[in-house]
Amino acid sequence: MSVTIHQVAAEAGVSPSTVSNVLNGRSERMLPQTRERVEEAIARLGYRPNGPARQLRTGRSQVLGLVVPSVANPFWGTFARHLEAAALQAGYRVLLCNSERDPTRERDYLEELWADGIRGVVLCSSLPSLEHVLPLVQRRLTLIAFDRTAQAGDPASLVNISVDNAVGAELATRHLLHLGHRRIAFVSGSLRSVNRRARYRGFEAALEEFGLTAEDTPVWSGAADHDYGDLDFPDLGRTAARELLATGRPPTAIVAINDMCALGIIAGARDAGLQVGTDLSVVGFDDIVLADLASPPLTTIRQPLPAMADAAFAHLRAGVEHAGSTPNGGSLLLRPELVVRSSTGPAPRT
Amino acid sequence: MSVTIHQVAAEAGVSPSTVSNVLNGRSERMLPQTRERVEEAIARLGYRPNGPARQLRTGRSQVLGLVVPSVANPFWGTFARHLEAAALQAGYRVLLCNSERDPTRERDYLEELWADGIRGVVLCSSLPSLEHVLPLVQRRLTLIAFDRTAQAGDPASLVNISVDNAVGAELATRHLLHLGHRRIAFVSGSLRSVNRRARYRGFEAALEEFGLTAEDTPVWSGAADHDYGDLDFPDLGRTAARELLATGRPPTAIVAINDMCALGIIAGARDAGLQVGTDLSVVGFDDIVLADLASPPLTTIRQPLPAMADAAFAHLRAGVEHAGSTPNGGSLLLRPELVVRSSTGPAPRT
DNA sequence: CTAGTTTGGTGCATCGTTGCAATGGTGCAA
DNA sequence: TTGCACCATTGCAACGATGCACCAAACTAG
Fold first, then answer.
1. pTM, whole model, 2 decimals?
2. Which bases of chain C come closer than 7 Å to a protein CB?
């Protein structure tokens, strides 16, 4: 079907071994003219080495895995694009998988990827426990956990990359406090995931600095038993807004677990006839593409996605290419940045 | 490293061939108890067949390719998720690639995918000419062109899947006309791509039905020489809104080339102090996740993405699995649907 | 002039799976 | 008893690339 290394060898009048040497950059052990002949033959025949054969022989693969909750969420889509760009530059490709935040799917995907010879994966899971993928790590899969920080039960070699969620939430909350807000709500899905808990901690920390207690901070985290999927965030925000604003003493500001949720909250506030930015302030998290297109444009916490993607790829590559040494695990927390737009404003006077 | 078919064979006390027969469903030619023993051994050892080896031997691959302009665009992210779901159900995986609408990258990716043994790809290109990927099709790559309709120069076997863009744009424009608008603008990036042109034709057709001429329809299509990327749509819309609204006789309604662009237009209108839905009506195209979160929620044309993804996968699979027969190409145009929300309203009285 | 070294290139076994051709054992008809 | 068909099972040669071990020729040193 396709042209093989043997045909190239025949065309160039050398052995397949020599062609292989050319392909793998071992050109110091042949005459320059030989090398040239081979390269011409390759070009003439339009030869490309067969990936599967190569991989079977070497055990190495030029494909990396990326497991995200859902690419339908623009945050993950953007991250995927950055990671792909970093990988491409180094000659790797990225196989993208949607887990829908389902541990079983996460495990199944990793198993499939492993069976396909993929030895490095970025897992965007944020589940507190990673025990469902432990067997893979033991088989020496290089695993980078993205959007998550190290937990006690983690395998020693696990590298975690994440934004500093606590700092981010603290920045967001402080911003509201400086604007004079004193009754601030926190809206999230279930607080099961690591980063959502970290954001909540940051929120609390900021309140404490200002001497506020839990009494002033309604937390809305959905039906406890139901874990909201990535596409439910807007609905969740909308519902939360409706319910919070209907209470006797509604908050004047809301910290949302992410931008999708914040957009939902804005929609909910609009439903209730409130003007976001004056009657109610809303802060998001992530700074997705659409954050500054919202009406009003969303004040939010920006994750440094390009830097995070670069870091993830660098660690992945190091793990895959130096398979011998077990890398030392830990957490890499990048600093987020507050982006002030118009969804936040001074607290309304009571 | 991993457990092989030989180890399973040893464990079950049979030959590798028998294990292979079990794996490939040729169970009618062995004793039920043999089959059972093999299956137990497989389970006990946690064996999974090695993908690359299998692929090298059979030439078949369980991976399909998907090339999209950019997953950072939620429209493509959503499509990717639907296609992945369809593929997964049939035991296929999907390798996702971002082309950034660059023909060279499209071709390079297809070459890479081919070299990796991938024989079926969905290409979301919408470029009028597909000659840059012709060599691949000649090598019998099964190619589905998504978001594009057949062109004269296409290879005979090419299957195109798309929403009916002309009908969609016509639905959108008629909706505005029925609301009383008579001065309607069309905002797009360069009209180089097939589907953008189709949408423009639909727009024109609707105007003609109402006896309107080009005079009443400012078209804004950006700097002609510069092709806007997928993430520039919002900026494009914003700029277009600013410029159109600053003219002496501004339009009362705008048909946007897609939702991202429409969101930009809404932002631009807000910048200009206009109330979208009353002062200015805006219709989008695609119905991305965030369309009904916008302020105001966006009236738009919904693409039946799940059905389109299913169709794309079905054709892909047919092409890959029956490699012998050359399928008959053509275009499949699915019907879009008008979704009325609040970004459109009666034309303001002059 | 020979023994040793370097240089440039090749032969071959191998990766894990597959599927055809072949095996030997059994049962049945002639 | 022999010939034949049939059965479950197995041996073996691929698929395409790799890289070690090897080799022949050319060169160097003593």
1. 0.91
2. 7-12, 14-21
The alpha-carbon gap from A22 to the nearest alpha carbon of chain B, in Å, equals 18
CB of residue A247 closer than 7 A to nucleic acid strand D? no
- The protein residue nearest nucleotide C15, judged by CA to C1', is A57
Q: Residues 6 or more apart from B158 whose CB is under 8 A from it?
A: B130, B137, B143, B145, B150, B329
Q: Is B23 (CB) below 7 Å from strand C?
A: yes
Distance, in Å, from the CA atom of B2 to the CA atom of B47, rounded to the nearest integer, reads 8
pLDDT tens profile B123-160: 998 678 899 999 898 888 999 999 999 988 888 889 99
Q: Measured CA to C1', what is the nucleotide nearest B2?
A: C16
Amino acid whose CA is nearest the C1' of C6? A29
Superfamily holding A59-163+304-336:
Response regulator (3.40.50.2300)
Nearest to A145 by CA among A169, A132, A164, A126: A126
d(CA A308, CA A198): 18
Q: What digits encode the pLDDT tens for the residues A62-93?
A: 899 999 999 998 999 999 999 999 999 998 99
Which chain B residues are closer than 8 Å to A263 by Cβ?
290, 293
Domain B5-48 homologous superfamily, CATH? lambda repressor-like DNA-binding domains (1.10.260.40)
Where along chain B do its domains lie? 5-48, 59-163+304-336, 165-303
Cα(B167)–Cα(A239) distance, rounded to whole angstroms?
35
Q: How many CA atoms lie within 13 A of B323 on its CB side?
A: 14
Q: What is the topology classification, in CATH, of domain B165-303?
A: Rossmann fold (3.40.50)
For B281-316, the pLDDT digits (tens) are 999 999 998 898 888 999 999 999 999 999 999 999
Nearest CB to B115 within list A51, A84, A297: A51
